[in-house]
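Can anyone check this?
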Amino acid sequence: MNLERVKAIIQTASGKRILVIGDLMLDEFVWGRVSRISPEAPVPVVEVLRESYYPGGAANVARNVREFASSAMVMGVVGEDPHAQRLKKILAESRISLDALQCDPSYQTIVKTRIIARQQQVVRVDRERPQPLSFELRQRAVATVEKLLPTIDAIIFEDYGKGFLEQDLVDEISAAARVAGKILTADPNPRNPLIWRGMSVVKPNRGEAFAAANQPWQEPEAEPLKDRALLEVGSKLLEKWAPHQLLITLGELGMILFDRNSAPFHIPSLAREVYDLSGAGDTAIALFTLALTSGATPIEAAEISNHASSVVVAKLGTATLTPIELIQSFDVNR
């Protein structure tokens, strides 16, 4: 892909406004060192050195968007607990709009704590209590989106299977957004088997794609375009969801783009070193959506998404990248 073309798309993206809808989380990282095994059990003793906090789940998608776009806003639900206050503070400091945020005093804000020593994750602790949306909260969320539609360019549905995204909510928001001519993209979750019909793009990873197509897992072939099981799954999901495009991420094998009007297109991975895959899918959907909204073709958007993902997996923790890092990736890999 021509470097000047990449720069032009990034420049256009800087003026875009994206709404991310989905499960919001607070990512907590406890950094420490291990020098001994506990006398109480055969587990390492971690001496805590510092702690850090980042927006997680759909909030991390918005964080990736905000690095490139003039406006990113999140819609999801948080409680009225200290974790919610911390998450809102971090989002505000990241210049992510909270205008669409929904608060429910009965809800427990989701927190994922990762304990890391010697640059490796020792254990993860999850604090969550998934619960379905109330009718009142769903009505309020749909009304909020309808009010915001004239001010945004695209909507990303980011599903972590925690209960915020349900079929009626997705259908009502999607119908209104399509009438308004907005780009709609979705990052699905197999624990929440929604029908993503009529999306501009749906982006599962390989495992999610097989689950959504009700196909048993099969080990990937070295060449994705010769992977019969993968190609069959892609074809089934194009029929099931009827998106304009289907982008399946393949980890170290890159990505494959399916389109109803052309042959599958494979984009090889560029990652030289992989430290942490957490958040790579968030980056992929964020940058694909931004590029598509900024006039990129689906193949160009996939290439930009692939470069972006290759940068963030070389970072430890829930990471993002900057426009400069994306341009450098294209420059280095010319």
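Reply from J.R.: I decoded it. The CA atoms of residues 249 and 265 lie 12 Å apart.
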